[in-house]
Structure formats: C-alpha cells, structure tokens
Amino acid sequence: MQIACKIIVLLLGLFLFSTCASAQKANLRDAGEFEVWLDDFVAKNFPTDKSGQLAFVIIQNDKIFFQKGYGFADAERKISVSPDKTVFFAASLSKLFTATAIMQLSEQGKINLDSDVNKYLKDFQIASNFPQSLTIANLLTHTNGLDENLIGSLAPNDSKPIAMSEYFKRNIPIRVVPNGQQICYSNLGMGIAGHVVEQVSGKSFDEYIEQNILAPLQMSQSSFRQPLPPELYENLTGTRAKQTPFMILSPAGSLAMTTENMAHFLIAQLNGGKYGEIQILKPETLAEMQRQHFSANPKVRGVAYGFFETSANGKPALFHTGDRGHHSLLYLIPQEKIGFYLVANGSDGDAVALREKFTEDFLNRYFPTEKFELPNPPNDFAARAKNYVGTFRIGNYSRTTLTKIAGLPGQIEISDNGDGTLSAELFGGELKTKLVEIEPNVFRSEDKGYFTFQAGVDGRTRSFTVTGGISDPMTAEKIAFYEDARFHIGIIIAGILLVISRLLLIPFGFFWRRFRKTKTETETKSIFLQTGWKLSGVFAFLIAIAPLILIVWLFTRENGAVYEIPWAITAILSVLLIASLIGLALPVFAFKAWCESAWTLAARIYYSLLTIAAFILPFFLNYWNLLGFRY
Fold this sequence. Notes:
globular
C-alpha cells in the first residue's frame, strides 16, 4: 500500500511538473495562438500606422508555419501589407544568395574556395602585398583584410549603374590587413564574390541568380535587378525605399522580394538545400556553408559562409541582418528546422531595436531557458584587468581614402570596473555593457555576446572581436592616445578657437588703427614681420573657408545621396592644402619675432600658438587622409 501511495505521489508530481513546464514553454504548433502573440508583440513594439510597415514569416520543417503583414503598404489607397505581394528590400541578406551561388559553383568544381581569388578575376588583379593568398573563403567570412573604400559605389536610381567589372577597374581593391585574422564586415568583399560568379559562370550576376536560385526556388517576386522590374517596383513599400540609390556592388545588397518568397529560401536552407523536389545545393554542400569557418577562438561563435553564428537560448543558430531602405533579420535554428524572416519599414531606431526585441521574446517564449546571468569573475582577474584596458577603433574604416574620417566615432573604450569585471562603452556613451572573463582572453557580455581579445607578439592586447549576438560581428583595434577621437576632437576645438580669434583680430585691428593716432607696434616693425602677421590672417581665413564651402554645398545639392566626389570636397581639400603650405612659413616669422623681441610678449605668445596650429595641421590632415586628394 505504501509503495502504491509513493507511485501515485510520484506520478502526481510528474504531472504537476509537466503542467508547469508546459505553462512556461509555448508550443510552436498552433498558428492561431502564434498570431495572437505576434499581434500583441507588434502592437506594443512597433508603430504600424502610416509611417510603419512590417512583414513576417516563420518556417517549421519544410512548410510555412505562419506569415502576416502589418500596416499599410499604400496608406493613401488603404492597401495593407501582404506577405505574398508587398515588396521589401532584403538589403544585406543579398549576401546569403551570393554565398549560395559561390557554393553552387564550388560544388560543380568550378571554384576552389581556398584558391587565390585572383585566379578567377580576368579584368583586374588585387595586389598580393601579404604573404598569404586572398581566398574566396576570406570573402565569404568577412576576413578579407581589404580597405573598405566604397567611394563611387552608389548610382542615382534613375540611371543605369556601371558594370561591376568597370567599377573594379576604376577602384582596384587594396589589401590593408592580413587576411584570415579578423572579422570586418565587408560589402566590398561580397561584391568581389559576386563578380567571381560572373567571371566563372560567364553570365551577369543577375542572370545567374535568377536561373540558378530564384527560378528553382519559385521566387518569382524577387530580383537583384536595378531598376526593379515594373511589377516589383509597383509593390515596393515606402517612399524612402523607392528613392534608394542603386548599388553598383549589387551582390552585397540590392535584392528586393516579398516575405513569402524569402520563405522558399529559408525552406531550402533548413532542408538540406531542397525546396519541394528541387535541390539547389547538396546536403553536404549546405552543411559546409552553414558550419563555422572562422572564429577568434574555437570556443566561441564565429562566421560561416555568409551566415553569422549566434545562440538560440543554447541552441546553435545562424543569422544575418539587412539595412537598406528597410531593416530585416533572417534567423535559422537548424536542429529545430525553424527559421524566420522579419522585415520592417519605419524609423531606423524602431526597426533595428525591433529585431533584437523580437528575437529575445520569441526565444524566451518558445525555447525558454534559465535567465542569463554573467558568471562570477575569476579570482585573479583584478590583477590582470589592466592588460585589457584601452581605447579601440572598430576596424571597418578606410585606411587609404578621405572616408577614414567616418571612423572617428567608431571607438570603444574598455575600462576596469574594479570588481573583477570590465566595461565596454561605445564612443559617446550610447551603448555600454559589462564583461566577465570565462576563458583566458574570452569574455561574456551582458547582452550574451562574446568579446575575444587578441595579443601581439609582445603579449600586449592589440584587438578584440565581438561575436555571438544578433549584430554583425566586428573586430576593434587598440589605438594610441594620439589616435583617440577625444584627442582629435580636442585639436579641432582648439584650432577653431584660434581661427575665430585670429579672424576677430582683423576687424579689431582695423578699427584700432583708425581711432588711434599712433601706429600699432606691429606696424612699427619691419615689413617682413608685418607680412608674417598678415600671413597668419590668411592662414586662418583659409581654414575658416573650408567648413563654409561644405555648408554651401549641403544647402545647394539636389538630394541626399552622393554618387561621386562633389566639387565641394575637391575645393575643401584644395583650400586646406594651400593653408598647410602657407602654415609652413609661420615658424620663420615666429622665430624672428622672438629673436628681435618684436611685438608685445602676449602677441608673440599668441603668434606662437598660431604657429603650433600651422605645424600640427598637415600631420592632422595626413592622418585622416585629407592632405591632398585621396579619393
């Protein structure tokens, strides 16, 4: 009797446990239940009035489990967003199709992913300025080490973009970092991969994708073409999207499609490369595409071919995001054969935040796990913390062109919290997260990502790589104090104050001489020193003209996109070059003034400050590739 009672109690306990567990975990079986949850999520997290549109599809096994659109594709005509009709830009998800095309050609034996990319480039060659060859695999994993110079890579959407071959002839890619060492998100690399598809297949990229991926997957409402076919353009949602410039490197981001069409690609990715009876990749080729091919550390998430690795509450997952006119997220949980695609049109901040919020809420509801908490830091870490502290710059900036200045705010500060943990803070304090070491040089962040630090030959930290979240992986390099954005901003502010003060002295000196009966001290000295004083005014005037040229251009240009180097940039660089040459003469006048005790002490000190500014200017401009014409 006692045994029977124990069995009843045990069974009752198991029943109650299973009941509680099922209450905590929602089953992805009832599409109606999922729709109620999704409707509530969208209502709380994304405005879908006239300014916002959203479409969503989720795949389970080899079928669409649920799809729906939110908002008006055309508010004036009250046309709702439809998953099988409304067209959105997939943007950088285009890279997954480019990677798939490369894998097809590799499967056919036409491409060796580990071969030098120059082997497949007929119209230009990339200089081999590092010992190891730049490979196709490096292009697919964003580890190519190329200078991300995208000047001239956009074209007006009412024009015909130049061919990629012509673009690359005019802008031959430059290797600036050894390949295979760090992840730097690269549109340029995927553009080259797409051009390899053209060179090897003998077809245009658009034609190859249409014939070998889109048509077999029955994706008739999808296209890389620029301009879009009329029927797709008609259904493209969002005024801003319809004004989006063309991408000459179309393999990196020009794909537009319906949400329902993307579901076909998801099904193929989750079912061994097969959609219906059509096989676009062999299962073993797809597995090769989806496995890790680069990681900063074998124990952390890394990069597959095209995809980025992350964790779905402990389950291996793959993802990619897109941001061009619209904001999108493709997310796969291969072992569960579940994947979803979310795309939104709205304010950039709302749309980007939406995909992170959705992923978190979806996983916590359908794949719940214990609440993530950072582990306790190692006991000895406080003594080692200083090895990781410093200022780092995100690596995907141009090293060789004037667009290097765009990397100024891309800076992360690693600081010691004094409690065995570190903090990583983006420049300006917009984002901040705590880090705890879980393995030597490997840290976990509060947002579930991984920070993996790399040391140089001297043992000192030189960079770190961030992976594992649902943001694009990146590498940041340690910089010296004189490269710090704060140092350069300080130089800019000091320079502005000196220039303004010198310009104010021009009218002040004029009125001072007019109302005084005696000459000023500068006028009583030699003509040589008078020339030096006036030359400092010309120097300041030229520096002041540069931003004024920019302001005039900003207010007079016709639209917001820049397709080539505008006249204003050439004019500004010319003015700054002349100012730098004039500035070289100021030290001569300063030296003579001090030798002859000319002017007042205050005037000599002030002129010396102007001389120091003139001396620093060419070094400052050269650092940011603004000295001369580095397009």
